[in-house]
Amino acid sequence: MAVTQIMPTFASLNLSTKNMSTLTICICVAFITGYLCIALESLTRVNKAAIALLMCVVCWTLLMVDPASFYPAVTGDSVIHHIAEVIEHHLGDAAGTLFFLMGAMTIVEIVDSNGGFNFVRDTMKTRSKRKLLWRVAFMTFFLSAILDNLTTSIVMIMVLRKLVQSRGDRLIYAALVIISANSGGAFSPIGDVTTIMLWIKGVITTQGVISEIFIPSLVSMIIPAAILSMHLNGKFDKENNLPKAEVSQFTKVQRDIIFWLGVGGLIFVPIFKTITHLPPFMGILLVLGILWTTTEIFHYNTAEDDTMAKRVSDIMSKIDLSTIMFFLGILMAVAVLQEVGVLTLLGQGLDATFEGNHYLVTGIIGVLSSIVDNVPLVAGCMGMYPVQAAGDLAVDGIFWQLLAYCAGVGGSMLIIGSAAGVVVMGLEKITFGWYMKKITWIVFVGYLAGIFTYWLEKTFIF
What we know:
By secondary structure, the chain is mainly alpha-helical. It contains 22 helices and no strands.
């Protein structure tokens, strides 16, 4: 969690360092220092995954300097055994999220590498600039709810490069891709890493988040899209004929089968969890196994050198393992803050400062998610606020649903605030200053409109 940003001083949140040991303060300093390095990755030129892993190990090592002070009820040598069990517990929670992500990323790569997303390019073809904008908006919105905002952003940018030759126009479309991808991921339990974390933790349900967050998320996308459409007029010079992807092994029917198995399988995962009550990563592994077996059958009559080992290694090499390591480091580092009681104190401080106004608390968290990564923000919030049987902190309560919305949509305010923004920034060479000047205020308007829409829902409908 971006504790580095929401905890400028303990005093400002009614927290007192007198209630914290020197060792606890050292752990906090190590965490904040690591997060500053992560936030300044563009300046330090050090991969954020490396910093996250170092931060994780340093925080746990500091805890081991005097473990008895944190677990006074555990006596003697048994405290070491207790900490080992604590680490295994947190690692088990993190592993569920990581295996889900790895499985989902592999499924998307299988579909993409076999031409499954060709239909997207065909659907986008039009000469009208405004029609293209709305097609991009809705296609990105719904695709990111099924896949993830990172993969969807890459697919859509590649499509736009074929359709839009003007640099100025393409920047507007690229900004809309970021906005739509983050908004679309916010209402789906599998659409964004943060919603996956909340869903796996059990604080939001599939039916709850879709039924109550869908309209606010849609509003947060439509309003910026309407504003951006005012900057686009006329038609493109000529119809663009999009070339088909070169896929030598499979026929169109086989590619369609792979697409529907992959995307349909991702949609089926929440249903599988509801039916079997197994962890979500089991459902994603089921889909991966079926899709993998199907592609192996399709490969049966291909060239002899096209072995299973070669195909698997080709697909796995495209998985961004550095992202997985980053999530592992962050989740385990946040676990240390949870163990030493910092997150509980921080949650109490936020409630005391804002008098329990969860609309304001989550709204601020959403704004902060545009400054730093929203994954640790959500991870920290899950440790700060315990799930309650009733009220705003109950399962599908106002706090958790707003957290899913704000952490996802809020990341669009700055181009570095989300994985989608970072990848589009790299692909289209968008500058931080241009985005902040032209796009940030537009996103903020949609962000506030979505929160207001959610308030209307909770006040008059649900």
